[in-house]
Amino acid sequence: MSWRSLRPVPRPRARARGFTLMELMLVIALLAVVTGMATLSMRDGNASRLEEEGERLSALLEGGRAKSRAMGVAVRWVPASGVDPAATKGERRDFTFVGLPPSISMPSRFLDDRVRAEVIGAPFLVLGPEPVIGAQRLLLRIEDRTLVLATDGLGPFVQVDDGSSGNPP
To answer: What's 119's domain CATH number?
Structure first.
């Protein structure tokens, strides 16, 4: 026998306890993804609802502009609140498209009863019949949240952030 064969057999090293750097990085990345998803799901409901109302109203205003041009009649969008005596059975109207013939039915209510509208600098919006209308702005409000819809007279009504909306950051 040689002296090499008498050497003690090396024991397997005891596994180090704890986490590797890669495991820690993976856990932190997973926590970041979960936190991001939770933050998005906890978005302010009033802000979401107001954006939805803004998109819908923008589409309605563009529909009113198109009908006004196609028919060659002057059409205005007038915000209102409360019970409209001209409405049938005293139903509530939040806004009215004035100038369209009675055969054309347009919505007159917001989807959320808390929404209030105000035309900035005028009592109503002019939608046509001219293809180019003046620049106009409209303020939508739900409680402490506001949203501004605007047109430059050529383009459609779009949501704008003018910095004066008073929305919390």
So the answer is: 3.55.40.10
